[in-house]
Amino acid sequence: MTARDLFARPNRFDCTTPQVRFGSGDFWLLSEPLHRGPTTNDVVTMASGWQDAVTLYVLRADGSIGSVGVTSRTIGPHLRLGPVAALPIPPDSSPPMRVLWHVRGATNLRGVLLRPTIGTENQVAGREIRLSGFFGALAGMAITMLIGNLALWRALRQAFQPAYCILLLCIIGYGATSSGALGEWLPQVDDHDRMRLATLFLGASGAAMIFFVRSFFEPAVFAGWLDRVSLSVAACVLGAEMLCAILIPWHARLLDHLGLGAFILMMLLFPVIAWRAWRERSKYFWLFAATWGVPIGFAWLRIVKMLSIVDGGFLIENATIIAMGLEAALSGLAIAYRVYLLSCERDQAQARELVALQLAEIDPLTGLLNRRAFLSRAIGRPGEHTLLLADIDHFKTVNDTIGHDGGDEVLRVFARALRAATPADALVSRFGGEEFAIVVAADTDIAASDILDRLRRERMPFDLRVTASIGTCVGMLSRESDWNALYRSADRALFDAKASGRDRTRAAPAQAAA
């Protein structure tokens, strides 16, 4: 079992049995004859996997054999995005004729040797640039959405936002480890440890997806048995991947099937969630179906590849990270729509609150300020103000003559006349019953007699003649005590107007400023 002997006897190799049937262990693998001219920077690439060590032997045209070897601890400097290991063929003037790999400690889950190619360092660098753009775009998108949602969370405080941020962190972690970027950044890291981290991030991403969907939908969608099932599936996904990361390569195939089964359960859970959302008439059902359909499709593509149902290609080999990237991007659109709905709901709530506040401050019969709102706005004003108290004369007689409905109409006409006779910035209130109060700045050009003239010109129901009396006073409104003093003076003036025969005005002496 030496390299020279194996090069000399290629018929000893089994080239028909699928590699995965041999199980785990140590293997020799021989390439087809190479048809390649002499070069000085040949590189052999192969996908990184669960292998303890790989030694590469190169048979040259002159019969010499060169070799280069790596272990899981020393493969870091040779790791490229993909992740692939690029082992340089020792330079020689004689062209390579055949390549032989000695793989030790292979778990052989998808094959002993995956995607072996031979090329130049320039070709490897070109592939690295293309993959850097691909993975960099996914990472940049995820980081941007992470920062944006963290900023939004400070303002909105919705439960789905931290869940989505955790999902993005897991996707970023999985992308950095599974793509081989971590090995390039930290070449001293054991490749097995890198793959263990990727496995942990994969399990965490699956569980985070479920928790994000749980927080995105209305509580009714996950009420009852679906709540327990979703939590159980999330625990299975995370637990299975943790077992793989901790125990592999011990019983690698069993652990791999366990993790695959957990993800199949998760893929089967999403249609159940969609069905439940449709049955509960969730307003996010179509949003979920549109944004998660494509990522779930890519995830199934990766699953059928792991089951060896289809052969690999770029899309299939990277289906997991593509599915995660699409899920992150499309979920970002779903969150944007959800935030739009929240803003609409908040605007409507604010409008309803404003209407409710207005209704709480407005007298429903006349449309003027009620007593509470009037006092809250009047007390505390700086400077001197004029208070006018107007009271309809003999209002009981009005009610007795034309009824309470007619009396209500008189109050409405009276209120409109007061509002029309006063400046726009005046506070006009129905203070209680048939009594009305007006507050204006002391320097405002307004006369109580002009208000009475306006009231006399108003046409009342049934052409009834209705008069009013007004008492006025000027003073401060800085404190509640100022208001009480001003109100007492204006009320005495109103009483004097009533006592003097009604349908007239009286002014009380101005209140002295404290």
User: Regarding quaternary structure, how should these chains be classified?
Assistant: single chain
Q: Could you report the average pLDDT, rounded to the nearest whole number?
A: 86
Give the topology string: H per helix, E per strand.
HEEEEEEEEHHHHHHHHHHEHEEHEHE
The domain count comes to 3
CATH architecture of the largest domain: Up-down Bundle
Q: Would you report the number of β strands?
A: 13
Instruction: Give the count of helical stretches.
Output: 14
Report how far the terminal alpha carbons are from each other: 112 Å
What does the main sheet amount to?
5 strands, mixed
Give helix % range. 40-55%
Q: What does the overall shape look like?
A: rod-shaped
Q: Identify low-pLDDT runs.
A: none
Radius of gyration: 42 Å
Supply the CATH class of the largest domain. Mainly Alpha
Q: Give the percentage of residues in beta strands.
A: 15-25%
**Helix- and strand-based class?**
alpha+beta
Do you know the CATH topology of the largest domain? Rhopdopsin 7-helix transmembrane proteins
Give the spatial strand order of the biggest sheet: 10-11-9-12-13
